[in-house]
Amino acid sequence: MSATAEPRPPHRRSEEYADLFGQAPVIFAALSGPDHLLEAANSAFFETFGIAHEGIGAPVAQLIPELTRHGNLHQLDGVYGTGIACRARGWRFVHGGLGAEREGYFDYTYEPRRDADGQVDGVLVIAVDTTAYHHAQLLAAEQRILLEQIARDAPLDEILNGMARAIEELSPEMIVSVLLADPSGKNLRHGTGPSLPDFYNEAVDGIAIGQDVGSCGTAAHLRAPVIVTDIATDPRWADYRDLAQRAGVAACWSTPIEGMDGRLLGTFAMYHRTPKAPEGTDLALSAAFARIAALAIERHRTMEAGHAAQEREKVAHEDLAFVLDASTAITREPHYFDCLQCMARLTVPALAPLCVVHVVERGKTRRIAVAAATRAEEDLLGSPALRDEIDTAVARVLVSGATETGHVGARPDGLSAQRGINGYVSVPLATRGRTFGVLTLLSTHRPLDGHVVALAEELARRAASSADNAHQFTDRVQLSRDLQAGLLPPELPRIPGATLAASYHPAGEGLDVGGDFYDVFPLPGDRWALMIGDVCGRGALAATTTGMVRHTARAAARLLNDPAAVVAAINEALTEGDTSDDCFVSLVYGELRHAASHLALDLIRAGHVPPLVRRADGTVEELAQPGLLLGIGPDTDGSPCSVDLYPGDGLVLVTDGITEARSPSGEFFGEDRLADALGTLRTASPTAATLVESVTAAVSAFAGDSTGDDQAALALTAT
């Protein structure tokens, strides 16, 4: 007799989807039928593709017409028709109407959804938006190439042309131009504009710096970005409107390029062929490449200036090396707080003798890192008065989002009035338009000049991005751990006459949900079921299979008074339907009952690590009843093995992550060492917790803390 699950009605499915994916950062949608009707989706799906919630029930191709053009509809048809999942990484998707196109990159999986009879009745879409990561990687690579060109003293025109070409490749709708301030500071000269017509570059070569002189002349005059969204109507382009029309440009956003000492070096402009307002990413791109252009231009002028400029060249080289090395070191830190603490250490004494880092957490500001060149200066940071002054400055920067500096005599009641402090700079740590912390440098000797401030701002920008990435990494790890915890019983039950204990140790960083699991649950007739198993693979498929095995076992065990029948029901659930996905499972399943003077246990083993019984006298027995892995074929060949546990006897079940743990030399821990770890216990009647601890301690001593596979252990002792 086997248990057959009732088909879940759509509203139940929607509730389950909402529970699983409603607030998840992944993009989720459930499509039903051959027309792929949108049955359910989470907020991330609607927001990403700009679809109203009223779209539920409509064909997804109608809601997102671009799916047909990009070939996704064909993929969905294939998944629905064949039952074979479809996966892709780094998929480029452009959606939106003319003039409002949006480009995105996604990792996605199309999984077939099956009804109770194993027939495909829909497709589940799970995707992760990797656009920011993709663009960040491309942008970082281009920036690094340019920085390396600057470091090796490449010609200025080569750097600027390369920068313009790189941006235009990253954003094909943009046209880039750089104008250089001439020595008089009154005019702008042609720097680069490889995609602009020659007549246009010649016409703007030498334009005056002043009010209402196009975008670039005005930006250079105001020393502030000038955004012109429609050249045809903007008065600042009155004298150049015909020229722009001939060149085929309709919008221009210009940013002044300033040196570390505040001198005007030129302007960085991005043109569009249609009227357009910039987005936040456009402004960030402009600011980033304006800074690189500033480095390149200053490097060039330094080399041209002769002996006096050679010293400035050395400083620029050191600054560049410092920023690159510091950025690399900070990026290597995988965790949020470690990134910011590394930043604090790197600033001392390179930028200042004292550093303090604050962050906002849950609405409260707290100090998370300090660094000092000497112990005496570190003690100075402990001064209550100085702490209050720093906190006040930090609060202002968190509100304004702008760098704040102070010097001796500037504010008699400020930080400079504290003993030994003659200057400070507080730099915001911001990402994605949000200021989440402040980097504060304090000087005890020379004041902090604009050069130090600029380096601190650049370092803070890079560190903020790395810390934000680390924060998202930590959140992803926590999400995986939470999902893994949901696949394990929240706590082990109490069994009269027995003690229970379990251990679970995930492999690596815990980014993917593992396939190891265990469970103990009551059965009718004062019986108990226990099991341990391992699903091949990791991630979503392993999690789904793990949940299915546990739920099938719990349902079947209550109906079938036979361990072999329960295992057969699990195998049937794994093998039903037509799928190419490997769903192999190793398992030990047992049912426990109370006898007159002991515990009686019937176990069945399906391709799993053999169970071990430790007797009260210290001897260890292996229950070697073999059986095939589940999910391979329709039949199971295992037969139950009966074992009696008297007071002091214990049963130990482990997954192969323990027996296959490797030493530094590559040797397996093995089943013999597992038995030795149990047999050498000095305790006459160890508890289940003692048995588990002896196993985990032995594995840790043999292989260390780093594991290549998940490790799970479950122990039961008779009392």
What is the topological layout?
Elements: H1 10-21, E1 27-32, E2 37-41, H2 43-49, H3 60-63, H4 66-69, H5 72-82, E3 86-95, E4 102-114, E5 120-129, H6 131-151, H7 156-170, E6 175-181, E7 187-192, H8 198-204, E8 207-208, H9 214-222, E9 226-228, H10 241-247, E10 251-258, E11 264-272, H11 280-304, H12 307-332, H13 336-347, E12 354-361, E13 364-372, H14 375-380, H15 384-400, E14 404-407, E15 423-431, E16 434-443, H16 450-486, E17 498-505, E18 516-523, E19 527-535, H17 540-559, H18 563-575, E20 585-594, E21 599-606, E22 612-614, E23 620-622, E24 641-645, E25 650-654, H19 656-659, H20 670-679, H21 688-703, E26 711-718
Antiparallel strand pairs: 1-2, 1-5, 3-4, 4-5, 6-7, 6-11, 7-8, 9-10, 10-11, 12-13, 12-16, 14-15, 15-16, 17-26, 18-19, 19-20, 20-21, 21-24, 22-23, 22-25, 25-26
Helix pairs in contact: 6-7, 6-11, 7-11, 11-12, 12-13, 12-16, 13-16, 17-18, 20-21
Main beta-sheet strand count, sense and barrel state: 6 strands, antiparallel
Q: Tell me the overall shape.
A: globular
* Number of H- or I-type helical stretches: 21
Tally of DSSP β-strands: 26
Strand order of the largest sheet: 8-7-6-11-10-9
End-to-end Cα distance:
35 Å
The pLDDT mean sits at 86
Strand content: 25-35%
Radius of gyration: 33 Å
Regions with pLDDT < 50 over 5+ consecutive residues?
1-5
Proportion of residues in helical segments: 25-40%
Counting helices, strands and paired strands, the structural category is: alpha+beta
